[in-house]
Amino acid sequence: MEQTCEVIIDIAHANVDRLYSYLVPEGMNVFAGSHVLVPFGNGNRQREGFVIRVHDAQETPDANETDASIVVLKPLLRVIEPYPILTPEQIDLAYWMQKSYFCLLVDALRLMIPAQLRGSKVKEKIERTVQLSDPEAVEAQLASLLDKSGKPRAPKQYEVLETLKTCGLEMAVSDVLAYVPDAQSAISALVKRGYLVEGGHVTFRRPNISALTADKQVTLNDSQKSAVDAIAKAMEAKSGTLLLHGVTGSGKTEVYMHAIERCLAAGRQAIMLVPEISLTPQTVGLFQERFSDGIAVLHSRLSAGERFDEWRRIRLGKARVAVGARSAVFAPMQNVGLIIVDEEHEGSYQSETVPRYGALEVASYRAKQFGAPMLLGSATPSLLSYYRALSGRYQLLELPSRVQNRPLPVVEVIDMRQEFQAGNNGIFSGKLAQYLSECLEKGQQAMLFINRRGYSTFVSCRNCGHVVLCDDCDISMTYHKGENRLRCHFCGSVKPQPTVCPACGKPFIKYFGVGTEQVEEALHELFPKAVTLRMDTDTIRTKDTMQQMLGAFARGEAQFLVGTQMIAKGHDFPNVTLVGVVAADATLLIPDYRSTERTFQLLTQVAGRAGRDENPGKVVIQTYTPAHPAIRYAREHDYKSFYFYELEQRKKAIFPPFSLFVRILFSSDDESSLYTGVSAYAEQLKLALDERLGSEGAKDILLYSASPAPIKRKHRAYRYQILIKLLRTARLSSAIQTIYTFAADHRSELFAMVEVNPQDML
Ligand code: ADP
Ligand code: ZN
After folding, report:
1. CATH at 335
2. Contact 16, 41 (CB under 8 A)
3. Model confidence pTM above 0.90
4. Hey, whose CA ends up nearest to atom 10 of ligand 1?
């Protein structure tokens, strides 16, 4: 029977972001979700597209959604992959995202498949094999390769044939070559002779995962058990959101793994999201050990082939657990029974590129699609999640203490002002230096956390006060001692290290602000014999360096590990007994209403790395503001008091979760046209909002401002923003919709983007 189908063309442009009808040629197998090649436009250029629906010919497609002007349908050219690359649930999800984030449908669809699949940039890997053509005849064949004196005439061929005889099975050519090097032509010759036959089958390229520590079989304690039971109940009920609040080292990962086991036992699949940063070989290795090839891993350090194959292993049902960063929420599963989001408070779950989706929101939608519960876990839940848990929207599960009643580490807060007054202007306080030295003596390990990479965070002239800024961005440049030059952390541009002030010409250049490089150097000066590893984006460049470095530290090849956020989370090193936070104020000073919350979270997480095994841990926090609540409550490991304190602050200032920010960011190289453009835009948008919300609803707009962004220039472009703060009421979604619709109708050269609840407001 003749079929037609509706296709969305793989071009990200608003003008073509709709369905086009095509004829399905006789005998072509096309399904909803198929990846196809179509003739497109007047020139009939070949384009890739995704089939959204297939119709039998007598059904007329919905005239609103297809191009009515196309009367004679063009036929599809061919189907690219034999199986539909999109599942029905993914197509439904893309439509939901289009509505919720006002993005292009094609942009949403692109998230669901590996980028390299488009344009066929990556193919399946076929493993070539050979086997004996006739095992019974192999002795005679071997003999035929000998000369009169009984020596092989072609030694390589002889060796290859003998290898296959010994093996007795089909062998991968790559394995044969491992036994008999450089035997390519010998193999071909044997095939020609008819002694060997060639074969081949698809293999899956898998990331190289090695567990750093052996999988321990543990017996769950009572809190863990009741958490797993509650999750299992929710799985039976096929709904619900649960928040697992467990202190660091309380065994949350064990709870996740047991819950996943139950999910698999019920014949369903599981998705587990973790922040990219904690997708360490350690975490992945643990899951790999527990679920072996049943898991697929998705993260940014995979090669294109690995990513494609891991995705296909899920799509083809070979992997039943997907572990990955934010984008793994789109894993092509069809029978999801549980979605877990570890470290749910992490900002990295919010996408910073179009479409700007929130992985938690997407996870929640997918969970409902499949009738699966969603499990959020953290030692420091976001205020919003905890607020929802206390108000009964989420079910709260608690792991109040560390496993085997190990104590939480003792946290000492050091006032660096007093250190300075006492004559110490070094990086380390007296206490921290002393503890570091004791740690070395006992043969234990320490981790030192500093939020900044590089050597000094800014360079300034003591004569005139000039600060060296990036030429293209509105921020100070960081001194990198290793490369002996200044670097901009936004655009990456570099400048030579100045010897005199670029402004006044005097030689009074001084370096301020401590970065990871300087901590590493200070450690080396203090403890010349100890080995220090430094982990930041400067030292972790390739896909394997992180694994190598963590492996070396786990094996005790270094005593100290210095690093940025990268070392703050997830790691479980039993021999680490000391954690030092070199400068706790760095994150507090960021002008953002969340900086107190973020600092508390970071300090709690970092502190949680200490004393996770038998030896008790110590934490030293160095700060200039020891009385700050973020520091005070982190010292006491008191999440709840912190929560009530911070919630009160948010309530007073009507900040989220009581309100919501929308930011529209504009940028242009020309500041004066930017200024006029943004002012006019702001005025019109305000009119549109007032009209939609009415006089009562207009009161929901608590703040409406148009001004330069806090960082006014980035990558040469000037940046202005409209910042809107909206009260959380029933009218909220119509306000957001008005903003999105307005933005879609007023695309201009200036327009950059709308961000709802932006993670970064700089
Ligand atoms: P969290 O993620 O809550 O910080 P982990 O899940 O990393 O904690 O667990 C910390 C350590 O405790 C791990 O080494 C883990 O193997 C171990 N562990 C977890 N549960 C138990 C248990 N019930 N008994 C003994 N050890 C456990
Ligand atoms: Zn720059």
Report:
1. 3.40.50.300
2. no
3. no
4. 249
